[in-house]
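Write out this protein's structure.
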Amino acid sequence: MISTDLQIPELNEGETILEGIISIESAISANKRKIISVFADEEKYKKRDRKTTRFLSMLKKNDVPYRLCPRSFIDEITSGVTHGGFAAIVTERSYSDFDVLLDSLVPGGYAVYLDGVEDPFNFGYSIRNLFAFGCTCFIVPERNWMSAASTVAKASAGASELCEIAIAPDDENALRIIKDIGIKIVCAGLSHNSVSINDFNCDEPFVLFIGGEKRGISKTFFDNADKIVHIPYSNPNASYSLPTASCAAIFGSTLSNKK
């Protein structure tokens, strides 16, 4: 039904707006947050756009309420014009318990702790790259970018909605819990005792720490790492570090090929 009484929605505490079909579909599939309402471009519906028709059918099948409205209204309630004509009001997502997620890791399996990533796009791209290569478990510090759900979901192409994410306690407690459960700590970095990711093998479950370009991995974890691994550069003059998302793609791809 095309709405004629539209008003800019007032978000309740914990609610946010997801943008684009991919983000909204992923949120529905993951079932980690409630979809309160979806807004869809009425012109696309009138033109019987195939993608729109399919999407609205999926919403009906999942009993998700939606409203058809002018694209200008969707522009107004979102952060830009890259939403493709779709937006959704959603509740805060649920998270995995930190220790439960660690306990779920199988031998040779791993979770990625994204530490010190200061940009929500970089954060989302990193999740997207790792998810593409099979990583479905992520850990983030208490201060993280999950509050910018719309940006993260869009940058990750919905992967941030589909994967399991746990919020870690403070560094000291997180380290204690990891050690108590018996999970290995593997840090991405270059040091005198680091090994190439190509030579890295671990038959035990581990947490792979990947740091942001500015702050990097917390000293608490780096100093207590069971193994430090680096990316071998082909260019001997490349003394710089790669962006976090690029490192994530390389680590994800290399670890995937070792399985």
